[in-house]
Amino acid sequence: MKDKHLIELIDVSKAYGGDVALSHVDLYIKDGEFLTLLGPSGCGKTTMLRLIAGFIMPDEGRIEMDGVDIANTPPYLRKVNTVFQKYALFPHLNVFDNIAFGLKIHGADKAVVKRKVESMLELVNLKGYGARYVEQLSGGQQQRVAIARALVNEPQVLLLDEPLGALDLKLRKEMQVELKNMQQRLGITFIYVTHDQEEALTMSDTIVVMKDGVIQQIGTPTDVYNEPKNPFVADFIGESNIIPGIMLQDYKVRMNGVVYDCVDKGFGRNTEVDVVVRPEDIDIVPAEGARVSGKAVSVVFMGVHYEVDVDCGGYEWIIQTTDYVERGQAVGISIPPDAIHIMKKTKQTNLFDAVAYPDDGEVEFCSQRFACAGLDAFETKDDVLVAIAPADVLLVPPEESVLTGVVRACMFLGTHYEVTITCDEEDWIAYSQEYMESGEEIGISVPADKIAVSANETN
Amino acid sequence: MKRTDAKKPKSAGGMHVRRSVFAYPYVVWMAVFIVAPMLLILYYAFTGDGGLTAGNILQAANWDNMRVLLDSVRFALYTTVLCLLLGYPVAYLLSQMKKATAALLSVFFIVPMWMNFLLRTYAWKVLLGAFSNMLYTESAVLLGMVYNFLPFMILPIYTTLIKLDRSYIEAAADLGANPTKTFLKVVLPLSMPGIISGITMVFIPSTTTFAISQLLGGGKTMLYGDLIYMKFITEQSWNAGSALSVILLVFVLISMTFMKKAERTTGDEGGGRLW
Q: Do residue B175 and residue A153 have CB atoms under 8 angstroms apart?
């Protein structure tokens, strides 16, 4: 890997008919690195890949390759090649002609085409398969043909859009190793899109974690795993205990009423923070003499380790350990200082554009009227901005509320779940004591005195 | 518990109606209106003077009649080529549009088909007579045929193109093909099943068509369909008419075999076949 920046995305935004797919993204990709775009579906990772491939143009920003802006260059003039999610192998051509497609388009002579295609077939372990048609190949073989078809053009960058998604687990593992080896041997820059965090950790030099069109963290697999920047990254990559805490002073954090030593500083005194502790970093110790003790409420054998849930009164720690404990047994836990990762608290508020109706004591947003106090300063039909804290959003059964939405994500934050709900194209953040399935329908209500109204200056 | 379990299959069996029952009305229809007439044609074609004979066929296969058949095939070829040249771009443009726009526009192609084709052809006769001196020429016949058969070319090609996975086009662009090359190397070959369906659906009906040539050609252009019509209706010679029909049937079967072969070699990806 060289330090040269091969591709740079500068302040790139992209929306599809009002839906933001990417929002002011900056990213550089070094020559020869294996970079993974990781995130849940709809996070913008595929949009970013398609922007680099040239299938779509950004609404704003620049995409530079070797210092030249290529944001508006059509894909056939770019020195990148793509391995498509469903391979997109041409069904009317055999394996040889599929791989030869790019070479022939660029007018390479027959002998060269034959030599290059044959050596590609050898590289992907498909020697002798040239005359077969795509439909005669298994998923794994099609995958290799797709890779060969892209690599034969000797691109500077290979883009891979969830290329292993359609393969079974065993084949996927094999292909992960093969892809990584291939990338190292050929020294080509790989940009790899996946939602599989394990895949990202195994293969990448750099991981870019994304959510809602925004980059959450860029770093090496070790960085991203050990020092997640926010609860989303911690939750998305690996299993974790995420607990709200208070940073009392440098190197001291209080969680769940207990003060722990840690290795972080610079958060100021008595600051609210989120604390991440990986389940494998917690040690189980004898209950006698332990600073923190609790009861093992669940013990599950996972093959290499046991996963033990320890209830310490108010908080349930997930612990991975190779030592067996009995269910119901009283155990002590010990968390070494370097296992405690402190993150700035992500404060979220629900903000909506609304219209005031002071005469009725109501505001209208998300196509619904809500009773609201504190509207005296506004005229009827004034555009206003309402702010509602997630803790004030009440989740009720859908039939009990005029406003209903669909749960899009639910993340455990130690003492409660943070639920993202989409209704009427707006996203709500709410807190809940119970886990909610994605796709579940839920009613939303807000007490009148919890809606903060302010003048909407943008209009 | 056990007893109810044992009962279940029996009661279900009593209620069971074999699905093939629903095909019976059609089978009857087919027997009466397709198989029986065919057998009648064969009967009339190979009998005469109270016995079996190949005389009708041999008589029908004379040079004059074969020239009419060749003429019909020539017309059908012109029609097919013109329909393809006009229809492919239309189908392509429709496939590139938004679904709603395409649906609206395809109404313009489909609505005329709701009208009987004789009515449409009469309309052309009036129009051509009033606004041009084309009426009663070969061009008028060709115009009438292209007009009547064009939708049968557009629809199967459109169906194939609309089903064409966009990722193939992206893959071609990704591998360095500009839009022209992408069209020639990927879109066109992958729409072959639709093209072949279209050709089949235009070529065979236009080989056997009649009435259009009578109405717009004024009897100067005699097509094979007109010839059969003449033998049956004007001359009341069922044996001669049947013999001509059998010859046409054989010709159509041979052409169909070729089309099927072509279809098989292009593979069935895209699935634009209507039958």
A: yes
Residues from A in contact with B at Cβ < 8 Å? 53-55, 74-76, 80-82, 84, 86, 88-92, 101-102, 105-106, 133, 149-150, 153
Give the nearest chain B residue to A56 (CA atoms): B170
Q: Which two structure tokens, joined as six digits, stand for B7?
A: 């009962």
One domain for residues A255 and A226: no
* A92, A101, A150: residue with CB nearest B267: A92
Q: How many domains does chain A have?
A: 3
Determine whether the interchain pair A88/B171 forms a contact, defined as Cβ–Cβ distance below 8 Å: yes
A16 shares a domain with A146: yes
B170, B174, B269: residue with CB nearest A92: B269
| CA closest to A90 among chain B residues | B168
CB contact under 8 A, A53 and B181: no
Nearby residues of A80 by Cβ (< 8 Å), 6 or more positions away? A52, A53, A54, A65, A155, A156, A157, A158, A159, B174
- Residue of chain B nearest A159, judged by CA positions: B174
Of A54, A86, A102, the CB nearest to B167: A86
Residue in A closest to B170 by C-alpha = A55
Residue contact A84–B269, C-beta within 8 A: no
Residue in chain B closest to A152 (alpha carbons) equals B175
Check whether residue A383 and residue A264 sit in a common domain.
no
Looking at beta carbons, which residues of chain A come within 8 Å of B186? 90
Q: What is the CATH number of the domain that holds A181?
A: 3.40.50.300
What pTM, to 2 d.p., does this model score?
A: 0.73
Could you say which of A231, A252, A273 is where a domain stops? A231
B243 touches chain A (CB under 8 A): no
- Domain span at residue A428 reads 350-455
Q: How far is B104 from chain A (nearest CA, A)?
A: 23
Residue A322 burial (C-beta neighbours within 10 Å; 0-12, 13-18, 19+) = exposed
Structure tokens that stand for B68 in this block: 């009419």
Pairs of residues, one from chain A and one from chain B, whose beta carbons lie less than 8 Å apart? 68
Q: Say if residue A214 is in the same domain as residue A93.
A: yes
Tokens representing residue A97 in the block: 């002609």
With beta carbons less than 8 A apart as the criterion, state whether A205 and A223 touch: no
Q: Kindly report the CATH number assigned to the domain that includes residue A389.
A: 2.40.50.140
Are B269 and B193 spatial neighbours (Cβ–Cβ below 8 Å)?
A: yes
Same domain, A165 and A274: no
Q: What does A217-273 look like in DSSP terms, one character per residue?
A: EEE-HHHHHHS-SSHHHHHHSS--EEEEEEEEETTEEEETTEEEE-S---S-SSEEE
Interchain pair B174, A92: CB under 8 A:
no
Tens of each residue's pLDDT in chain A, 459 residues: 567 889 999 999 999 988 889 999 999 999 999 999 999 988 999 999 999 999 999 999 999 999 899 999 999 999 999 999 889 999 999 999 999 999 999 999 999 999 999 999 998 889 999 999 999 999 889 999 999 999 999 999 999 999 988 788 888 888 899 899 989 988 999 999 999 998 999 999 999 999 989 999 999 999 999 888 888 898 888 888 888 888 888 999 988 888 899 998 888 777 778 888 999 999 999 888 888 889 999 999 988 899 999 988 778 899 999 888 889 899 999 999 999 988 887 666 787 888 888 888 888 888 888 888 878 888 888 888 888 888 888 888 888 888 888 888 787 766 778 888 888 777 888 888 888 888 888 998 888 888 888 777 554
B16 contact partners, CB below 8 Å, separation of at least 6: none
A53 lies in the same domain as A15: yes
Token code pair at residue A454:
């302010």
Phi, psi values for residue A302, rounded to 5°: -110, 10
Domain boundary among A231, A261, A285: A231
Same domain as A225, residue A81 = yes
- How big is the CA angle at A15 (ends A159 and A440), to the nearest 5 degrees? 95
Of A81, A90, A91, the CB nearest to B174: A81
Do residue A26 and residue A144 come from a single domain? yes
CA distance A82 to chain B (A): 7
